[in-house]
Amino acid sequence: MCNLRQDKHSLANVDAVRVSHIDLTLAADFERRALHGHVALTSSLISPTNTFVLDSKALVVHRATVDGVDASFRHVDDAVFGTALHVTLPALALGVPFTARIYYETTPESTAVQWLPKEQTADKTHPYLFTQCQAIHARSLLPCQDCPLASSTYSAAITVPSWATCLVSAVARADPVTTGDVTTFSYHQAIAVPSYLIAIVIGALESREIGPRSRVWCEPSLVDAAAYEFAQTESFLQHAEAIMNQAYV
Questions:
Q1: Does any domain span residue 218?
Q2: How many domains does the chain have?
Q3: DSSP one-letter code for 94
Q4: Which tens digit of pLDDT belongs to each residue from 19-46?
């Protein structure tokens, strides 16, 4: 493995701390154009340090804890790459897992999160949210190690208005739960991925099955056209599996 400190586009100390799992718990507020909640980072030290440094940008951080105990934190701004979030760690042994939890919210300036008013959608009935984390915008969605070599599994529980469907670049792990006027969607990604592959979409969506393991989602007025456009998805998957001699997962 190359020296992770050579990634000049990240402010995180990936040479000292390894994140193995990200657990997102967020709620969408379309009126304020904000996602708010917390992220839990299951991590361990790979070299001695008393500080966990994470990438962030255009986030409001309210609180940090390490293994359930409040931890001090500070921000160090960078003119180009956002803000380094420095979380103070207690004395920790190398390789022993700990959980850092950051309570925060996004802002309208968070470049990864795109909020569309209903007038900008096809059906013009409800607003729409989608994220675009590539290449280094994940830091404006959540505090993280925002570089390709820092891959981890992740889970997400996203609470949205009851009219909306939330999709994530992961596998649904439970049926949606509706309480009053909100619904919570839960997902889990068991394959370790870099931060730029975390993706969220929230909107008035419908789906069509386009194969034995594929489904396309879109606004109701466009979903049939989308299904037609992606009708060959299963064929693409089968050809890729044959070339790679590897089942798609």
A1: yes
A2: 2
A3: B
A4: 999 999 999 999 999 999 999 999 999 9
Cβ–Cβ under 8 Å, residues 55 and 146 = yes
Same domain, 216 and 229: yes
Q: For 168, list phi and psi in degrees, rounded to 5.
A: -135, 155
The CATH number for 211's domain is: 3.30.2010.30
> What are the angstrom distances between the C-alpha of 73 and each of 2, 4, 47, 97?
29, 23, 20, 20
Could you tell me the CA-to-CA distances from 221 to 121, 124, 126, 207, 228 in Å, in that order?
Answer: 10, 10, 13, 11, 13
pLDDT lower than 70: segments of the chain: 1-6
12 falls within a domain = no
List phi, psi (to 5°) of 35: -100, 130
Same domain, 93 and 141: yes
Could you tell me if residue 7 is inside a domain? Answer: no
Range of the domain at 242: 205-248
Determine if the pTM surpasses 0.70: yes
Cα 108 from Cα 141, distance rounded (Å): 11
Distance CA 178, CA 162 (A): 7
Q: Tokens 């040479």 correspond to what residue?
A: 15
